[in-house]
Amino acid sequence: MVGSIVAIGMGLAVIGAGLGIGWIGAKAMESIARQPEAVGDIRSNMILMAAFIEGAALIAILLAFLVA
Amino acid sequence: MIRLAAIFSLIFCVAFSLSAQHNHHGHDHSGHDHSGHNHAGHDHSGHDHSAHADHSGHAHGADGDHGGCGHYGDFDVAETAMHHISDANVYSIGPLQIPLPIMLKSDDGWELGMSSKFKPDLLGHGDGHVGHNRYVLHGGIVKRIADASFPMGEFNVVGFKHDKLEIDGKEKDVTYVCTGDAMHLLEQKSTFDGGLFGGGMSSYKDFSLTKNVTSMLIVCLFLFWIFRRAAKAYKKQDGKAPKGLQGMLETFVVFIRDEVAIPFLGNKWEKYFTFLLSVFFFILGLNLYGQVPFFGGSNVTGNLAVTMVLALLTFIITNVSGNAHYWKHLLVAPGVPFFVKLIIIPVELMGIFIKPLTLMLRLFANITAGHIVMVVFIGFIFIFGKSGESLAGASGAAVGSTLLTMFMMAIELIVALVQAFVFTILTASYLGAATEEAHH
After folding, report:
1. Cα–Cα 20 to 30 A to B395, which of A21, B235, B254, B370?
2. Closest CB to A51 among B197, B357, B422
3. Angle subtended by helix axes B2-29 and B338-384, to nearest 10
4. ipTM greater than 0.90
5. Which residues of A touch B78 (CB under 8 A)?
6. What is the pLDDT of residues A4-44, one digit of tens each?
7. What does A7-50 look like in DSSP terms, one character per residue?
8. Nearest CA to A21 among B349, B362, B303, B386?
9. CATH classification of A2-67 is 1.20.20.10, yes or no?
10. Bridge partner list, B113
11. What's the CA gap between A54 and B366, in Å, rounded?
């Protein structure tokens, strides 16, 4: 029972992180299209922001491991 | 290029279908002695592991029906994946098991020597045929019999049996060793995560030179060698354009300097540059080393202890070099309304610990997930091949999963680079936040 709830929770965390990272990717693509000369800055900031969002999902995964 | 890839996939396919067949045969003689077979089913009821007898219905696969001592049972992909990402006391290249030194400390003293003293097959699954002072070798990993009254000294090992057992209300995978006359419960392997991933606190501590440590030493020596060569090259052709290895390393070093160190650390970049470069090349080297197929596939940066130490270094360096400005904004939060302070300050204080925690977990999760996906894709061959019964299924799945695995490996090469870069850039951004001067 707990395992199933944890599985749902992990799925929700993945949806959140996926939406967040997808949004960043979309916006980064758009920015690069608008300003191709800033591609280097945009890329490194994109990876940094994606890493922060991933952090939230990772905490969810850790809690899932602890509960399961 | 495409032709080369095609030839490689063909070799992979053949190798995998053959190994699927091998698994079937290995299956037959893995028990190497079935004498324990007859009484294995009912023996443990007389033992103090009566809990096991109650739960024998939980046993998975055909295994549970006859309590096959030393039988591997059906192919369990999750178990195989977990085994492949874990550390081991042998270095396995394909089926070849190279023994490594062991150093085990328990209340009964030290157990020293090589893991070959458990007499595993040179080509096999890394199961020892002999046990020493309650220690046995199972799947390349040294484990200990939980029963403290078990006599010390040498004993014969007939086989191993996997089962599920309820411990503290949680169902855990446990292993039994068959010594010919009885089944004995093995302790979980000691892990510092306190049993988060199936381990637990054990009565012994493993200080051995394990597969992960060996890989780390190999990679560190290799990095030392290439950097020494590059440094010599700079001395030799001073003022000239770099070439070869030197040029390749310079690309990375300049990239880290211009994209990571200078933007985040400003004019103090030189002070922390050595740390950033060390972390970057250490993680990158080990990520790539773990991707080499048929060469151990050691999962060093996917080991929680290794990433914990890396994150701990970042944590210590960040907080030790944090200036007054950093601590003031963290503990006092000047210029913030009082009620907001009540929220901001605890969140910031938690952030000190959450930042290295996510650093640790990110690297661990990404690399481990990559390794698991690879093993699971290859495991499709055994699932579709029904553990060697269906050659058609195995060879069909071999083609598909080889292509999938090669695709995943290409992605994992990018992940290896990106994760090394992310760890470095986050370390730099935390350091930058801690050392930033006040500007009013």
Report:
1. B370
2. B422
3. 80
4. no
5. none
6. 888 888 888 889 999 999 999 999 999 999 999 999 889 88
7. HHHHHHHHHHHHHHHHHHHHHHHHHHHH-GGGHHHHHHHHHHHH
8. B362
9. yes
10. B102
11. 10
